[in-house]
Amino acid sequence: MMTAAVVVTSCGKDGEDGAPGTQGERGERGERGERGDNGTVVTVGDDGYWYIDGVKTDNKWEGAVVTIIDGFWAFDGEKSEHKAIGEDGEDGENIVAIEISDDGYWIINGVKTDDKAIGVDGSQVEVIGGVLYINGEKTEIQVHECVTTFTLTFRINAGDQTPYTTQTVLAGAWAIKPEKEPTLEDLVENVAGLYAGSSVDMKQITTQYKFIHWYDAAGDEEDKFDFYAPINKNVTLLAKKEVEGVPFVTGDEPIGGVAANDLGAARTYINANVGEYTLLLDEDVEVSAVQNLNVSDVKLTIIGIGSERKISLTATGRMFVVGASGQTGIELTLGDNITLVGYSDNNDVVVRVQEGAALTMLDGSKITGNSSSATSSPNGFGAAVIVNSSTFTMKGGTITGNSATNDGAYSTGGLYVSASTAILEGGSIEENTGTVGDVMMTQTAELTLSGNAKVGTLTMTANSATTRAALTIETGWTGSVAGLNLLGYNEAAINRVIGYWATDDDPILLGDGVNAATVAKITLGNFRGSEAATQAISATHEIDDDGVLVLK
User: Fold this and answer.
1) Which strand (E) or helix (H) includes residue 491?
2) Which of 67-81, 125-139, 223-237 is most confident?
3) Quick check: 210 and 241 in contact, CB under 8 A?
């Protein structure tokens, strides 16, 4: 009689194990003890009825509720005469018996398989979700709670909270070496804290490490773990790795006296001890007061370890002010896995860069979540970032999801640049909301686009022929500008603005990258102003292939 693949079994109580024999070179097993009496085996036949110890019952499989009452099988609450719990045996064993034959093959429940257990091509046996797997392929054999299994836990570092992987192995079977070795990024081991020295890009950091082998945490790291040794206990394995080249930062240990993930303490320390520093965070951080970098030659890079780390503003005001009057060489760099989250009901910027200082954003950084009602220039007219007489460099990352809630002519959601230099080599400034959109360029602001840098809506102003914003396109630029707007207060001012850019000597677009293809990436929008009549002027002009603003 054929039975269904799903089998319900019960376990007799194990008797004492027989004495193990001495293991030979091929790991021959010792004599096993006598098998104890097992409990009744219940199966489902091809005809859909329950069978007990091979005897068909009158109970159909579909709809019948099978339970155990007083140690006997019961169907739909009615106790049968068949015992569900076996008698104690003298020398019991598990329901699923796993052995190795004399010629080196696995034996399961007394049946020799075609899978080798010994030798170079030996098969690997493990338990996943209560089911037996051979060489990674699922079998129909269920491993019940009476079968002894052990867990192998693989960790990159001893203190890691999350294992690299885990594995459940039958008692006496072999473990399986993870097919995927730890990647270079997995091997990075950095401790949160403030470090003296400059940082490097995270991808460069990870190339400093090399995976060697797995070893037993209870032993010596030089002893490579033997994956062909029988497993008879729970085991934790650690990755042995070697450092190649220079460490992550110039300092080997975090600076003492500055608690891990304490942004305020780190900022206080570096202002008092001028130099270049790297702050590594492995937790999210909240700040309620402005963090000032205001001493000459202070340079700080912030990087998140492992995954995204958020620095969140919990009150109105600025998160960072970079630069101070009379001070030079001050820099803030936002590195990989760092997100600055503004305040949802703010009246100020998240970051203000001033007095010749510099802000740099790298791949993996982000500024988001600020909603500002500010209506003045020092507060960026609602922007998330203002750069005033300073430098902003974007090598990657994003400024997105910020909003200016005032309806003024200069209301800017993302980046406000005044009499400063903005260099966008990558990353994006998009999906910020405000009257002028994502980016505002005013006074003598200069914006350069290269690489794959993308901007949503860009607005530029011109107060005179010499006091006006400039947009430069570098050769090879592959990004885009969704909309380019020009700003004037009234119709007369708009006409003056047009005149400033409408000559061959003074094109609106500058740089070697200006051509028909790059001009096509920029959509000329409305000439914004406080009078509705000025909005129609945009319909009469366009940018030609040389970057000059001309009549259509």
Assistant:
1) helix 491-501
2) 223-237
3) yes
Classify 179 in phi/psi space as left (phi over 0), alpha (psi -120 to 50) or beta: alpha
Superfamily designation of domain 149-243: Listeria-Bacteroides repeat domain (2.60.40.4270)
Q: What are phi and psi of 295, to 5 degrees?
A: -125, 135
Give residue 538's identity as a one-letter amino acid code: S
In the DSSP assignment, the letter for residue 208 is T
Query: Which positions ≥6 away from 102 have C-beta within 8 Å?
Result: 28
CA 65 to chain centre: 46
Compute the distance between CA of residue 28 and CA of residue 117 in angstroms, rounded to an integer: 12
- In this prediction, residue 282 carries a pLDDT of 85
Distances (CA, A) of 345 to 163, 378, 497: 40, 18, 35
Rounded distance, CA 468 to CA 462, Å?
Answer: 4
Helix (H, G, I), strand (E, B) or coil at 549: strand
Residue 182 CB contacts under 8 Å (≥ 6 apart), including other chains: 156, 164, 211, 239, 241
Identify the three-state secondary structure at position 202: helix
Position 219, amino acid: G
Query: Which residues have CB under 8 Å from 249's CB, separation 6+?
Result: 195, 196, 197, 198, 199, 278
Which residue ranges make up each domain of the chain?
1-93, 149-243
What is d(CA 386, CA 402) in angstroms, rounded to the nearest whole number? 13
CA distances from 407 to 121, 292, 347, 373, 434 (A): 74, 30, 14, 9, 7
Q: Among 419, 395, 413, 418, which Cα is nearest to 301's?
A: 395
Burial of 129 (0-12, 13-18, 19+ CB in 10 A): exposed
Residue 202: predicted pLDDT: 36
DSSP 333: E
Distance of CA 534 to the CA centre of its chain: 47
Whether residue 67 has pLDDT greater than 90: no
Chain-centre distance of CA 281, in angstroms?
Answer: 14
What is the band of 478 on the pLDDT scale with cuts at 50, 70, 90?
A: very high
> Does 121 score more than 90 pLDDT?
no
Q: Rounded distance, CA 316 to CA 337, Å?
A: 24
Whole-number Å distance between alpha carbons of 478 and 521: 9
Task: Find out whether 274 and 297 touch, Cβ atoms under 8 Å.
Answer: yes
Supply the DSSP symbol for 8: B
Rg (CA), the chain: 35
Residues 285-314: pLDDT tens digits?
A: 999 999 999 999 999 999 988 789 999 999
**Short-list 78, 298, 278, 114, CA closest to 193:** 278
Spatial neighbors of 517 by CB under 8 A, at least 6 apart, are none
pLDDT of 118 higher than 60: no
Checking if the pLDDT of 130 tops 50, the result is yes
